[in-house]
Design a protein that fits this description.
Distance between the termini: 57 Å
Shape: globular
Structural class: alpha+beta
Number of helices: 11
Low-confidence stretches: none
Largest sheet: 14 strands, mixed
Strand content: 25-35%
Number of strands: 14
Order of helices and strands: EEHHEEHEEHEHEHHEHHEEEHEEH
């Protein structure tokens, strides 16, 4: 732990262990943000670390930045010293390669994010604008003191983005695809939602769902404590098979999901696909009933079934969201194919601070050109809206 006193009677601490911060204090600070997500909760972060998923051994060395004013937790954020760029979903491999070509070290870098979780929301938890700025200043100082290359804040919300811009950080954007409930006159059911789509999109979805049903596939839905250990075991088998199919290794351990079942059961919804009396696939989404939000997270199948992925990961969750009055469903990183299924493009943001002046200037130039491309891409996508006028 490192500690210093700020000019406004702040005490700034950098902690190596999340357990040094009381869960109730951390979560209370998070709950002051109207756009908070379950993924910034103390329990979620603790599970990532204690399960061996995000640790120094896997390239995520945890650091937690907290700012206290008297007995009040004024601001806090999760930080990681990273020696690679896996599991981030904001890609800076080219920056690392450029550093390497010039004989400079890009890793380790300082990262403010939620490991393996590309969900926008508050990253600089703060009770006021001054505390938010203090977090950014402290991050830059950590980079200077430790001789690191850079600091990064990923998938930050609007308040964090405004603060980072004011502090002179460079902004980068990408695109995700989110579904939102119809305002004023909510959809009555999934069929009512489909009726708002262009005919070709509607017919394609109906055909895909029919093909799944004709193959004898049906679904059951389990929420929270209804998800038993055997269900979690089956889901994890499916989850690992997805990574194996892409010749990769799962980021999350089985113990992570065991901890989620123990500490955050009410935030999970599991769709199980059945065929011939046996489970053949699983789709797990996170939910926040208080804020009316759902988040597509993980999926897998033990055998290939045409169109099952679309039904399990989009149509079943969307039907559930409509039936339960959820306001939005976030489909996760990337995936332009989601747009044909009623998920619309949303711009997401990250902020970057590089210590090396020449590289900072070069990256700023790159981001300006990349940003123009993202804006053109968004315009193009919005011209291809799947909804009827």
């Amino acid at each position: 732990m490192r500690e210093e006193t700020g000019s406004n009677d702040y005490v700034i601490r950098v902690l190596d262990d999340l357990d040094a911060i009381e869960p109730a204090r951390w979560n209370a600070l998070l709950d002051t943000h109207p756009d908070a997500t379950p993924f910034m909760r103390h329990e979620y972060l603790a599970a990532l670390h204690e399960s061996g998923s995000a640790t120094a051994d896997t390239g995520w060395q945890p650091q937690f930045l907290v700012i206290e004013r008297g007995d009040e937790l004024a601001a806090a954020c999760p930080l990681y010293l990273k020696d690679h760029s896996y599991g981030e979903y904001v890609f800076d491999w080219a920056w690392a390669e450029a550093y390497h070509r010039h004989g400079l070290r890009y890793y380790p870098k300082l990262l403010n994010t939620i490991p393996f979780t590309p969900v926008p929301g508050p990253r600089l938890m703060a009770r006021d604008a001054a505390s938010r700025q203090a977090l950014l200043q402290a991050m830059a100082q950590i980079v200077r003191d430790a001789g690191l290359s850079s600091a990064h804040v990923l998938f930050l919300n609007d308040a964090d983005r405004e603060a980072a811009q004011q502090a002179g950080w460079m902004m980068r954007s990408t695109v995700q695809f989110h579904w939102t409930h119809r305002e004023g006159e909510p959809y009555a059911d999934f069929a009512d939602f489909l009726a708002t789509l262009h005919r070709d999109k509607r017919k394609k979805i109906q055909q895909e769902r029919r093909r799944v049903a004709e193959q004898g596939v049906s679904f059951t839905t389990l929420q929270g404590e209804q998800i038993e250990t055997a269900d979690w075991d089956f889901f994890y088998r499916c989850y690992t098979l997805t990574y194996r199919a892409h010749h990769s290794t799962p980021y999350l351990t089985r113990d992570f999901f065991r901890r989620m079942a123990q500490t955050m059961p009410g935030h999970w919804l599991l769709f199980l696909a059945w065929k011939d009396g046996k489970r053949v696939a699983a789709s797990l989404i996170a939910i926040d009933r208080e804020r009316g939000a759902a988040f597509g997270r993980y999926w897998g199948a033990i055998k290939p079934i045409p169109f099952l992925h679309f039904d399990a990961c989009y149509y079943q969750p969307l039907a559930w969201c409509i039936a339960h009055g959820m306001r939005r469903f976030e489909g996760g990183a990337q995936g332009e194919h989601k747009m044909a299924r009623g998920l619309m493009p949303v711009q997401t943001w990250s902020a970057h601070w590089l210590a090396h002046p020449q590289f900072a200037a070069a990256v700023a130039d790159f981001l300006a050109r990349e940003g123009e491309g993202v804006e053109h891409y968004l315009d193009e996508l919005n011209e291809r809206r799947p909804f009827r006028a």
